User: What shape does this take?
Amino acid sequence: MNTSLTPLTAATETRLEEVNSTEILVGIPSYNNADTVGHVVRAVSVGLAKHFPGCRAVLVNSDGGSSDGTPAIVARTAVDFQYLFIGDQQSILHRIVTPYHGIPGKGSAFRTIFEIARRLKARACAVVDADLRSISPEWIELLLRPIMEEGYDYVAPYYLRHKYDGTITNSLAYPLTRALYGQRIRQPIGGEFGFSGALAAHYLDQHVWESEVARFGIDIWMTTEAIASGARVCQSFLGAKIHNPKDPAADLSGMLMQVMGALFALMEQHEDLWSRQEGSRPVPLFGFPYEVGVEPVHVNMERMVSHFRQGLTDLEPIWRQILTDDTFTQLRDTQGTSGDDCRIPDELWVRIVYDAATAYRNRIMPRDHLLKALTPLYLGRTASFVHATQGLTSTEAEQKIEALCHTFERMKPYLIEHWQPTPPQSIAPAPLHHMTIDVGGDHGYLH
Assistant: This one.
């Protein structure tokens, strides 16, 4: 256990002494979000005043060194309650605006929020992204009330999304987490969460804060660690998630490496838990599900297929080390001769993911090489999914994702059979050809 305190600034320490304690804490990690953070602060403020008027509440902005005045906007944003049908009985919302310490990334921002929650003895907490455009005051109720009134420890978000938005979630994070740990949390890397003060303290005591998980894999880590710790888990329906477009220079390969690396590292840590788990069960869903318009997502099929076929040629020596002989043979044999064709059916994709997890565990090559080499396989799978669902509604496409989840669960014995460690390889891994993964601006398949 890690019992050392997270370092806070002197000004933040003073502010904690002034506030002393709180029932509710809402955290907003930020980095250069000046154009949206004011809206997020207003939504949080109204949500707390409307739904928790008698509760002592604190808003914490944990900022990563913004140069656009984001923290100042958080500090000064005010709400005029006159036209919001909210009485005058709401408590004062205390604000703590602080830089975070540690390696750059969302995880370090969360660590500061968790530490402040622990110091203030918060009973219920939530975190929301600073770039949200679709957040409403009701989100705050939906993330906090299951903890305040129903005894849950962790609230995952449930969004409605376009069928091609979030394919890392749809093809990897959701089905793998569900098959491993037996709980059907639809958005395990969603970005908005509710959690109890006790769970925040548990998170702080884990040895991850100087790791890559703390840099980028924090969302999937929080979800998995909540399940593994025995926390009571639920979901809340938040409608559509609309946020600022991600940086056009964002690298798909980098993001995929972060999510896959965190998933595989957690598999090593929690092997005793998932190896005994069979099947899966629904997770309670709070809120009122309703149809919402979702933003269309452009997916460039040609480019994805091109990257996959380039990988099939350039990365064959590496893929042969990562995949079993049967898996690689099947992968090669299922591809048609047409240059714009790509087929990775469900069973083959599950074998690829389970083989990759095993290869990661056995360290058959540097782990960053292994993770980077998986990007063209992921793009091939995404192209296969797009091709199979082009004429389907999002509801019908969701049934395809459900079928993939069942395949992950049904084939779990394959993973357990192959998971046993193998002797270290005596040959050096094949070098990664300097293969550029250029996905341009097609961000429909980023998370």
